[in-house]
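Components:
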Amino acid sequence: MTEPSRSDDGGAGSGGDPEPVTDGGSAAVDGRVSDLTAFLRERPRLRTLSIAGPPYGILVFFFAIPLLAMLVVSFQADQIGGAWTLGNYVDFLTSDTYLTVVWRTFLISVQVTAIVAAVGYALAYSIVRFSRRTTLLLLLVILPFWTSYIIRMYAWINILQSDGVLDSILNLVGLPAVGLLYTKTAVLIGFTYVWLPLAVLPFYASLTNLDGDLIEASKDLGAGPIRTFLSVTLPMTINGVITGIVLVFIPTFGSFITPRLLGGTNNVMIGMVIENQFKSAFNWPFGAAIGMVISVVVVALLLLATRFGGGLFGAGGETS
Amino acid sequence: MSLLRVRGLTKEFGDLVAVDDVDFDVEDGEFVSILGPSGSGKSTVLRMVAGFEEPTDGEIALDDVEVVGSPPFERDVNMVFQDLALFPHLTVAENIGYGLKQSGVPADERRERTERMLEMVRLEGYGDRSPAELSGGEQQRVALARALVNEPALVLFDEPLSSLDRKLRQHMQGELQRIQVETDTTFLYVTHDQEVALAVSDRLVVLDDGEIQQVGTVEELYETPASRFVADFIGDVNAVEGRVVAVDDGTIGLDVGDGEVTVPRDAAVGDVAVDDAVDVCVRPFQVRVEPAGDDRDVANAADGTFSATGVVRSRSYQGSDSQYGIETDRWGRLSAEIRSASFEIDDRVAVAWDAADVHVYRRDGDGSADDDGGS
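Structure:
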């Protein structure tokens, strides 16, 4: 029985009766698989490429090439294929209106990131340290992701609008209506709600890995709760914190749906301006130029923040 | 006045009584170990002294001040953790200086005291390294230095040596004793390892099932164990089942199988009465082994010895001594620790020990009665 499978696909043609045929068939398959394995074994670079290739291919095709296309278009006048020019950049960087929008976007992003980081850290901390129902609580945190972003924003419109859910509740308990829709507060609430899970997950991951003995050791050595947090808990989880901050800050900076639906016309953010250039003004080169500038600004800010954060906490407790 | 006074200490986790009405004292400058098997509640006692657990009931006084209810960072004790809990994001020197920094010691003095402590634990020049670059033994020293540098009234140890190999552990035991004397600090050490406890401690607190079994010096515990459990736990012991047949002023008559032996009255720990079922315990090093003669295998009340014949079943060399496992005809398996290594497996031998060397423990109800004689 083992004989055919030893020989290289020679068994396939040998048999008249059914049994050897099936044996021969499987032997042929075995033979091919081991040929491929042997082929790859001798070519380690090809093997690596066969694993790493597809994801890199996707990245190049859907990310690097479009980015490059955007860069090229941003140097063209008026429309795709227009004359080469620096005008788009000059227009954008010399316009007070646009720079005000960028500044506002930056401020809102910083505020959102700070709120989400604080709330998210407290949430992750309580899930890890004060509860046994960790899985259930994490599931509840992720649950909103199962509903469409747009639908959730419309839900917030319902809650925040004048005489909406929030105002009705306030009326019931005898408080004046606030009518938060189309205010900056509404934008902050919406962002906080949407990005919270993104921050909680990395915070949670880093906090689970934190050895509880280190916290006890710190308290044993005379550090109260706040000092223990600042000199042990936070530095030990700083990588998760930076990850969470990055995950919140970037999408907030480029966001256009939330500010449009909840912020109205008083809270224009740069993402809305870019979207407008592409979808209404049909000035793709100008939109591309703004996009490039914003990308550079965000990447620079993040590099700064990571460097700063790493230096502040990574070097250890002697700094405080 | 004791440095540490523990009275009626009790800790319940739900229905489980982890620590049950524990009393003990630690005097200034002592090295006391709490010894017990895993699950005996010894670590819980330590954690209550440190302030990580709140007692359900009882008092803990440090320097005559009640500390129950005050948080760990307000207690004048420092702990060496089982897995050491060195801060991985700080250097060795920063780890050691952590406590000083929390209590507001200026940087100059901090550096000086950290430096002195590194010398004390023989890690000069290691200050700028990360704890991860150090060996297990070196990390132990850092953890010890981190606790000692604050000059606490009491240093607590939660089995920190258990992860080390035997040789290093023995070395660290010596180091602990040296450092304890040099710094004149009081140590309270928790362990399940009787070897460590016997080696380092001035006094031992033996804990089982949340209750104190015995408190005393190493010699007291070894020579006059208060219970069968302590006898078993501190060193090895052979136990032979017997029954009390006579009690008078100076002696107790025991029926051990098919013979009767008279032992001194003070061999019995606690009260015994006629008809009580008892365990007669003897240390392996007190058992004599001889080649089997013709008629030596009779327990003889007159000459005050226990004797039996048996077959050698196992033998292990332990340096100068050999430990024999002997299957006796009368009392099942016994172990004997003797100098001579002249017996082979399957040899027939006679074993004997003096009545003066035994301890007699009354069997409580039938709880332990199903244990067999040998141990």
